[in-house]
Amino acid sequence: MSKRASKQAQAALTTEEQTLLAIVKAHPKGVDIEDIKIQLDGWNDNDILTHMNQLSSKQYVDFMTLGKTGKLAFKARSAEEASKTGGMKDEERVIYRLVKEAKNSGIWIKQLKDRSGLHTQLANTVIKNLEKKNIIKWVKPVKTPHKKVYMLFELDPSTELTGGAWYTDNEMDMDFIEQLSTQVYKYIVMKSFPQKVKDAIYPPSHSAYPSASDIHKFISKSGLTTVPLGVPDVQALLDRLYYDGKVTRILKTGARGGDPDRMDTDFDDDEDEDEFDDDFRDGGERVRDLDKGDVWMYKAVKGSALEERNAWTEVPCGRCPVREFCKEGGPVNPSNCRYFKDWLAAS
Amino acid sequence: MSGEKDRLAKAILLEHFGPIVQKVAGGLLERGRSTLVVLVRRLELSAKQVRECLFILIQHNMVTYAESAEGSRMVVYYQININAILLRDRFPLYMKAVRQKCGEESQRMFTEILRHGRANYPLLAANAQGPGMTRDQIADVFKALLDARVVVECRPQDSVTAEDQLMSEEAAEVARRGGLPLTATEMTKLRRELALKRDQYDDGVETGSKRKVVLDLEEITNKKVAVNEDPEQDPDKYYRANFAKLHVFLRNEAIARLAERRMNASAGEVVRKLLSASEHKMRDCGTEAKSEPVSQIMLSSILDPNIPLPVDGRPPGFSGTLDYLESLMQDDLKLVTKESEGGGGQFSVNLKQAAIELKARMMESVVQEKFGDAARRIWRILLLMQKLNETQVNKFALVPLKTARHCLYAMHNAGLAFIQDVPKTLDHSAARTFFLWYVSIPKSTTQLAQSAYHALANLKRRRATEIEARALLIEKMSRTDIIEGDAQLSESEAAAVENLNRVVDQLVGSEIRMAEMLMVLEEF
C-alpha cells in the first residue's frame, strides 16, 4: 500500500468508525469492549467488533490484552505512527510491534524471530527491509557482544546495553577510568590535609571533605572529560578509590543514619538465572546508591601510596612460577635456581 | 606445613649448632617423643654424643624431658619444641627490641643470654661488662632486663615437657580424690581448675623473681646461705629470654608504626603511649583483645613533649590529644576505641583488630605485588563485603569481567581467595549453584606462612650453597699470612670476596625480613 492509499483510507472512515475511534483515543492506556459499550448506546458486541476490525485494518487501532486476565482491549495509534505503519505489510507490522514493545532495552534477534512466528527467511528479509527504511536499528550490548539486539531507530540504547559512561566502543575504557580517578584522588588529597601547618591533621569534627556531588561539580567544571557523567558514575569512581584503600569515607554530620562501618550489601535475593537478570539487579543497586545522597564525605588516606613492601614477594620464591616443583635435591631446587642467580646478580 | 617447618628447623640448627646436634634434633623432629636408647639406635651415634646434644638442646630451651615409670624402671622421654627452634631466626629482631626498650648495655647482656640459652648472673656480669662499667651499673642493666620481663628466671619445670606436667598434675589430683576413675564432666572440671591454678602460678613468675612467693624449702635454705644480699644475683639462679613478652613489645611497636603510616608520627606516638601504659600487664600476644583503658588526661601527661600534636585551626598551646584519639577512632582501621567517658574519656587500643589489620595489610601487599592493582582492589572488596559472585565483583571493582575472573582465579590458586558454593537444588548441579567468592585472613595466614617457611628455608639453602662454592677462597682468607698482611689476595679474588659479601648480606637481610613476616603471621 502506498502512502497515498493510506490517506485515502483515512478519509474513508464512516461516521460510526469515527465515533468509535474518538472513544478509543480518549483512553491512551487502552479500553476494553465493556467500557465502550457503556459509552455507546444501542451498539452490540458485533457492531463494535466489526467497526473495530475496520479501524484496525486501516491502522488506527491496535489490539492488546489487558492485564493478567487476558481480556481483549483496544488502543489508538498516534497519527504519526499510523502514517508510518500504515504503509507496512502485515509481517512488517508484527516485527515493528515486537521491536517497539522492547523499548530502549531492545529485543534479541532470536527472540524477535521466535515471537513473531514468521518463517526465518521471511523474518530476515522483513528485518532487513525495516532497517533499510531507518525504522529499526540494531546495537551490540556490552555484556553479550555476540547478540544482536533490535530497537526503534529513534531510541537511544539504555545504559544496560552500552555499559554507561565507562564504555567506549563496547569495551571498558580502563585508561579513561584510571586517569579520571587519579584526578579525583588528587582533588581529594588537596582537600584532606591542612595546607598551613606541615603534617598536621584536621580535627575530627572537620566537615569540609568533599562529597560525591562536590566531586561531580569539580569534574564538570574542570573540563577533564567530554563524556557526560552523572553523580552515580562519580559515585562508582569514588567507590573504586575507596576499595583501592586510597580514600576513606566519613559519615557526614546531619546526614541520615546508618552504620558507617557497614557497606550497603543487602542485595535483593531474587533468583537470577541468567546474566540479564543480574544486570537489572545491579542497576537497581546503583539507583539505591544514588538516593543515599551525600551521606559520605571522602578523605584521602595517608600511607596507601607508599607501599609497605612485604618480604616474600621481594625474594625470588615469592614470584616463582615453578614453586610447586621446588624441592631440595629435585630438578628445581634453591641451590641451582636461576631466579636466585638473576636476583643476586641484579642488585 | 610440618615438612617445610622441619626443613627450616634443621637448617637453623645446622647453622647454630652444627651437624651432630642437627642430626639428634632431626631425629626428635621426625620421630617425636623418644628415649635416649631409641635415639642412639636410630641415629647411629654414640650414646655420649647423643646425650651431649640433648644437653645442649635442653640448655637452649628447645628440648624438654619427662620421666615416666615403666614397670620397675624410670624411662626418660625427650621431646623437641619446633617453635623454639624457628624463633631463633628472629634473634636480631629481639635484640633490636631489647635495645629500644632497655638500652644498649642491656642488649649486650641479653645477647649473652641468647648465646647461652640459660645463664646465671655471674656469667652474664663477666661477659657483658663494657669498658669502665662499675658493678652497680651492671646490676642496673640486669635489673632493667628483669623489670621489662624480657628475661625471666628458669624453673625446674621449664625443662619438663608441658604435656607430662599436665598429666602428672592430673594424676596426682585424681589420686588425691581417692584414685577412682572420674567421669568426663568431673575430668573437664578438674582440668579447668588446674589450668586456673597454673595461670595464677605463671603470673607469680611473671612479676619477676624479687616478688616471687617462696614455694619450696630448698629455695629458703638457698637464700640463707646466699652471700649476695641481692637474690637476683644468686649464682644458682639461671635466667632465660622471655620471647612471649618480646612478641608483645614487637607487636605493640608494629601497631604504633601502623598508626604512624596511616596518619603521622604524632598519631604513632599517641598509640605507642596508649599501649605502653598497660604493656607490663600483657604476657603474650593472644590473651588480651584490648589494651587497658587510659584516660585522655593521663595520656597527655606521658606523651613525649618533643613530638608535637599539630591540629589545624586550634590555637597554639592547645593539647591535641583528644583530637588525635578521636581521629584514630574515626579511622577505618578502628585501632582506638573509647571505653568510657570518665577522666576526659577512657581510650584503649583494639589489639585483636590491630593484629588482623597487620596481617591483612601484609596480604594486601602480597596480592598487589603478585597480581597487580586490580587484584588488590578485588581482594579488598571481598574483605569488606564478605561474599560476592563474579558479576558483583566486576561491577564494584569497575574492571572488565574477564580481568576480574582472571584475578579471582589467580588469587584462588595462591590461597588468597576462596569459593563457597551455594546449591539451589538438592542435586548440587553446577549449573544451578551460586559460586560466591570470599577471602579469609585465618585461612590465608596458614597458606602464606607455609610459603614463607618454604622461601626462608630456600634462602638459607642458597646462602649455604654460595658459601660452599667459595670454600677455597674463604679458607685462603683465614690463612694467617693473609690476615697478617704478608700475602695478598689477587685482584680477582678480592672482587670475588666483595661479591660474596654482597650476596651473603642480601640473603641474610632477606632472611631476617622473612622471619619478621613469619612472626607477624604466626605470633601476633
How would you describe this protein?
The complex is a heterodimer of chains A (347) and B (524). Chain A is 46% helix and 11% strand. Chain A is mostly helical. Chain A has four domains: 3-77, Arc Repressor Mutant, subunit A (Orthogonal Bundle); 88-162, Arc Repressor Mutant, subunit A, CATH 1.10.10; 169-300, no CATH class; 311-346, no CATH class. Chain A has a three-stranded antiparallel beta sheet with strand order 1-3-2. A three-stranded antiparallel beta sheet of chain A has the order 4-6-5. In chain A, a hairpin with a 2-residue loop joins β7 and β8. Chain A is elongated. Helices cover 62% and strands 10% of the residues of chain B. Chain B has 24 helices and eleven strands. Chain B has helices at residues 2-17, 19-31, 36-43, 47-59, 82-86, 91-102, 104-116, 121-127, 135-147, 162-176, 184-206, 217-225, 243-262, 265-276, 296-302, 321-330, 351-371, 373-385, 390-397, 401-413, 441-469, 471-477, 480-483, 491-522, and strands at residues 34-35, 63-70, 73-80, 119-120, 151-153, 238-241, 294-295, 336-340, 346-349, 418-423, 433-438. In chain B, the strands form four sheets. A three-stranded antiparallel beta sheet of chain B has the order 1-3-2. In chain B, a hairpin with a 5-residue loop joins β8 (336-340) and β9 (346-349). In chain B, α7 crosses α9 (135-147) and α13 runs antiparallel to α14 (265-276). Chain B is globular and about 70 Å long.
In short:
Chain A: This is DNA-directed RNA polymerase III subunit RPC6. The complex is a heterodimer of chains A (347) and B (524). Chain A has 347 residues and is mainly alpha-helical.
